[in-house]
Amino acid sequence: MIVEKDLLTIKEASEWASGYLKKNVTTSNISYLIQYGRIKKIGNNGYLFVNKQDLIKYYDSYLGKREIKWKGKLGEDLNWALSFDNLKEADTTKHVHRLHPYKGKFIPQLVEYFLDNHTDAFKKEVYFKKGDIVLDPFCGSGTTLVQANELGMHAIGIDISAFNALISNIKIGKYDFDNLHEEIHKITKALRQFIADSKTVAFESKLIEELASFNNKYFPVPDYKYKAKRKELDEDEYSAQKEKEFLPLYQKLTNQYGIQLRQEKTDSFLDKWYLQHIRAEIDFTFNLVKQIKNIQTKKIISIILSRTIRSCRATTHADLATLKEPITTSYYCAKHGKICKPLFSILSWWERYSKDTVKRLKIFDDLRTDTHQVCLAGDSKTIDIIEVLKKKNTTFAELVQKQKIKGIFSSPPYVGLIDYHDQHAYAYDLFGFERKDKMEIGPLSKGQGRAARDAYIKDIAEVLNNCKKYLVTDFDIFLVANDKYHLYSDIAEKAGMKIVNRYKRPVLNRTERDKGAYSEIIFHLKEKIL
Questions:
Q1: Cα(29)–Cα(220) distance, rounded to whole angstroms?
Q2: Which of 366, 441, 490, 501 has the highest CB neighbour count under 10 A?
Q3: Does 236 lie in the same domain as 120?
Q4: What is the span of the domain harbouring residue 37?
Q5: In terms of domains, do 477 and 523 share one?
Q6: Residue closest to 81 by CA, chosen among 61, 55, 109
Q7: pTM metric for this prediction
């Protein structure tokens, strides 16, 4: 039951909350809580009220406390509406957005926020509408293209990486699902037979049996983790001892079954990071993929294979995202709290990803709109968008010439953070794509020093100057960046643009081990009128 004295107007609520939290809470903050369902709005004779008890529950909740804590660390200008803290991982990786792992991509809801037709206390204008053309000159894995399609907009992506362009185009492609099912079934059947004829199956079966017995004895669930968390045992010392104890048994089994662990050479990524039998399965499966006649089917199955072999690298479970040294023996797994083993077959991951991929493609196929999307492989600093697009889709090229591009939504690479070709080195080795590492902007290999930052400013400005030739006069550009070196004012100046707004958002649910408070800025740029 709502007590009348607890009903507050928006202004009264901001004043009350400021006193309750001992910090400034604006009317926009209260409006945000209403708009995003954190508290209920109550109407009475044309007036809008909120319940003070709802405010107390929110501010005392986990989400409320986290918002207050993060704003204390990152500043009151943090736009919490862009945290999307109410979403589950399944929402932020919906349908085709999880077709293939990719470092540095933004979540689809962030794209939707700026492309769709809603307004709120923070986004006060609508910048794009159905039928508009959106450009992403740092396309990555194609998030902007997919969301533009969902919203009934056309979109062009550009990426220097041929593999990135492949991922992006596969996400928005159309498929013959009957043919896709048929080819996946044929390959899976052949792979099972290939494995059945090897001694690896018997070896791994025996190894799993021995591991289960050993782990049940020395790493019982949940007792072991309970003791480790309470420091009743020294996890590092104990795990190292047990890891050493199991190793002779592992070596005995490999010798008994004649298992060759390492490949004879380490010249390429595929040579170095895969056990011998895994590599044999990869080559066997890839040869079958190359025989597929339907080009679209071949492309999507290539991505299934790429996703599969990424998960089968010879590394620990904890180091899958950031490789250290190849692992060819049993090891203590900090992630699972027991002795784990390397993978000896790609079959289980191949089957899992095959089903998952088809399911995601079908979900998106039901959502897609009749619009154009394409990712062009090329250098955004110099590419002639119209001429390259003509070779891919003449109808779309004519539309771009006639209508022009309404604006940009993109996330440029951050300075010195990721070597984009290296993160998919296995795919470049397998598919034979040409690598253009030297043309990456702001790669990890060049660091974050003054020279790297100056080069970054120059390169991003060149991209914007090249792209704006294809934009409408009153364009809107949104760039997502972690601008800790304050480079974007210089970038805007060199591109003949001005920053008209900054949206500072908290980045939650990060996959890295460092889960500390972290923010990025969405810069809104427009043409600078001289």
A1: 48
A2: 441
A3: no
A4: 4-60
A5: yes
A6: 109
A7: 0.87
